[in-house]
């Protein structure tokens, strides 16, 4: 009796809040959860004019196909390697940059730098692809000219299997680090200045202040960003690779997404594409859960 | 914020697609077996209509034809106040032919068009009456298309029927079991590559244009090592070429070099359906794996190693590959005759002395010449519910009649000078002026567009033909010489009229091209991709592209070609060859 009335009064008190939540809840349900049912076509031989329900079941055929395809191993391996380095550097570089920028005293200088470095984020890879072909050109490209000043042989960045992955990772980091640093910069701005004052009183120099105050202060947000990045471990960046790769570097640069794009382009194979998407999501899901558990145990930090 | 937003956007698109699909499953159960019933060709003979009568036909009450288009943004397609739905030609059609054009959808990109069409198909909604047949094979499978055998017999003009009979291969991609489901959109077939050479470099080095591959190699050597631009720096090379997307691409292509060694067509790494050509025994051969590609690869590898060709050819697409030529670092490239204006004209911006001149493509050691030419740009297909195919043919006949000339029964003398005064032409001082209004002294208020530009009326006039001008292959060819000699000569038909509007360098290059029409090779495989082609095509293309580029870049020896062919055949290539030939045999039986 008492319980019910407590619940009733709770509802009475908070129903407008729930009502506010309702649209978001419905949108999530309709646009995020219901469509997941469409993933069944990964297990069917889907023909658009037959419909999802009536297309025949073929079980794990598409998944088998993905794994028996002679190139699959190479493609999955490329994806993991490129994505792994992108995610690692994609967190480390912005953190470092944010720490360095935070030490800059002049606001005007700081703001200018910050604006300049996050600009590339807004350029699409279609444009940047063309720019990088020029910048990294063997003959007359600015990078190879600089290397030439030091007596180095010109490097065929986009056509050499030794260099392609590094090129892809570094150009991606260059494009995104400024934008990614915004989160860390705002975390740094939120650190209580009293802590630094107290540390100074105790005789700590800038380095010690960074180690004992700044880094611990932004650690939680670094962990959040890193954990979320793990979910993208199967995404090595279609836009970028599609605009930079070529048959010379298929060996090291062909990733799952570009591979599926080429197969899909041939015959609009929806089911196969869905199967690959599902496979990627499943891996991402497992990785997020695992890492979250580990972080919870080790770093005692929880997001959810 | 960023990842969340992206995810939301992505999922919205994803969801939109799926909700439509979901909606579809409920409604199209009764239609699932439509694909199983194939219409039979009618046995009773169908008579052609009286064309003289049909040419004057006006449909009363007016007939509505719906269509769908990919429309790119052009600032010279319509006058102010006119739109694709309401313009001088749609009004003319309505008033004179009783045909009203309606658009089911207009999108900006081909991919959007395909998505829209797939959604209509998936949700079993009404298809446009006439539209460009993307994935025609699926549409035929789904039983959604109108069989056209009888309609062609009945309504196509005699000249059109003759054109259709001349190029039966153009119908094969839209033919199933002898039933025709589409009308091919013919191209003018005048985009075969010519050899563009920096004439000023030739003169400076006292060289003549090469006619054979051996001489061509000497030219490359000279352009690479003898400082053809005379600036004292070793900053030039011979051939500007794109190899990223295949040995054939739409400009800066290597296909004439391939054709000098092989009877087959230079491979394009995009699809396993191109290119196939019959050998002496009437069997289809996939050019990329034919042994004749070996000397080609050997030659290319040698040139690459000697620095005669763009060191980055393998990472460049066509647009990127022409840049060294335009910037004055490369002296030769292969491409269509129109390149004389864009992009090559821009070379003069940085090198005022630069002159590009077109020459015939060089012959190989056995005197072979060959290049890739496309005969059609897709087909038009019709919804099986379309009731007025007669009206559409009345329109098509009229549009084609301008190509066939005034003896065609559908020829309309009101379109003698052009379509509409003040649109595609202006009468001024007793002369018909089609472009350069300002230079010809036409007063500004009589210009079709305030900008003085020539109107591009493809969306107004050819909306019912997928915004492609109806064209007869090679028909404009005599014009290249005629107008190069005398820019004011009379055009015999609308194909020549188009040629007349080209610039002088384009005309000269076109004239060079047509002297070598015997080198033109068309893809002989026009069937729908077989199951193996669909499942293994991407893999085979990948093997092919890797092998070609690795050999040219010297990462593998030329003999690796044999190993590649073995692997290609074992990875599904054998099956693909037999599929292609099974299809080829089936077309012969008819």
Principal-axis shape of chain B equals globular
Return the CATH topology of the largest domain in chain B: D-Maltodextrin-Binding Protein, domain 2
Mean pLDDT of chain A: 87
Rg from alpha-carbon coordinates of chain A: 25 Å
* CATH classification, class level of the largest domain in chain A: Mainly Alpha
Q: Are there runs of chain B of 5+ residues with pLDDT below 50, and where? A: 1-38
Order of helices and strands of chain A: HHHHHHHHHHHHH
Approximate shape of chain A: flat
Strand residue percentage of chain A: under 5%
How far is the first residue's CA from the last residue's CA of chain B?
62 Å
Query: What fold name stands as the CATH topology of the largest domain in chain A?
Result: MetI-like fold
| Number of extended strands of chain A | 0
Low-confidence stretches of chain A: none
Give the count of structural domains of chain A: 2
Compute the separation of the termini of chain A in Å.
33 Å
The top level CATH class name of the largest domain in chain B: Alpha Beta
